[in-house]
Amino acid sequence: MATVQKSVIASFMGTLAAGCLLLIALLVQEGAAVPISSHCRLDKANFQQPYITNRTFMLAKEASLADNNTDVRLIGEKLFHGVHMSEHCYLMKQVLNFTLVEVLLPQSDRFQPYMQEVVPFLDRLSNKLSQCHIQGNDQHIQTNVQKLKDTVKKLGEIGEIKAIGELGLLFMALRNACV
Ligand SMILES: *[C@@H]1O[C@H](CO)[C@@H](O)[C@H](O)[C@H]1NC(C)=O
Ligand SMILES: *[C@@H]1O[C@H](CO)[C@@H](O)[C@H](O)[C@H]1NC(C)=O
Ligand SMILES: *[C@@H]1O[C@H](CO)[C@@H](O)[C@H](O)[C@H]1NC(C)=O
């Protein structure tokens, strides 16, 4: 992990520590057995840009300050439950799409100037994953993603703010799943 990313992450350890460690543990534990579809990949360089990484985490921080619901976590162990490591990038692609379309778009006037910089960045990542598919049945993945969507919808605007507050986790989960 680059020093910059480390320090960015470190400043968030307070609130995000549990989630980060969970994700890392999860991803290490599952190992890499099956080759990932060649389209379900993102270049490491996407996650090594200090400026946009900082903006993403600053946006998450601003939103998490406005999120008073500490009982719910969207991006955590449950999201990956029963999903093979080789399918994690495809799963995160679905989460990224939902976040862009159903969370960031409705909230696009808020949390400036970060929002206007982070949305195009995430949009580019989403486009790079447009050809990412998995073979066979993806029902188990859709079920997990649907639970996340339902949670956000049920919480309404608070759910959207929470999802923005977890953009740091989304960033790390995408990197872990797709690089
Ligand atoms: C982002 O950069 C600003 C200064 O440019 C700094 O004050 C802030 O702590 C950084 N945020 C993170 C999350 O690294
Ligand atoms: C969180 O904030 C919302 C809206 O501002 C408020 O309705 C709710 O009571 C708050 N919940 C807690 C646990 O503070
Ligand atoms: C999200 O998914 C829908 C349906 O698959 C697709 O039409 C849309 O272009 C995607 N949007 C983004 C931002 O990835």
TrEMBL record:
One of its GO terms (cellular component) is extracellular space. It is found in: Secreted. Keywords: Cytokine, Disulfide bond, Glycoprotein, Secreted, Signal. PANTHER family: INTERLEUKIN-22. Residues 1-33 form the signal peptide. It holds the Pfam family IL22. This is Interferon 2B2. Its main location: secreted. Belongs to the IL-10 family. The keyword Transmembrane does not apply. GO terms for molecular function: cytokine activity. The keyword ATP-binding does not apply. PROSITE patterns: PROKAR_LIPOPROTEIN. It comes from the Eukaryota. The gene is LOC100663852.
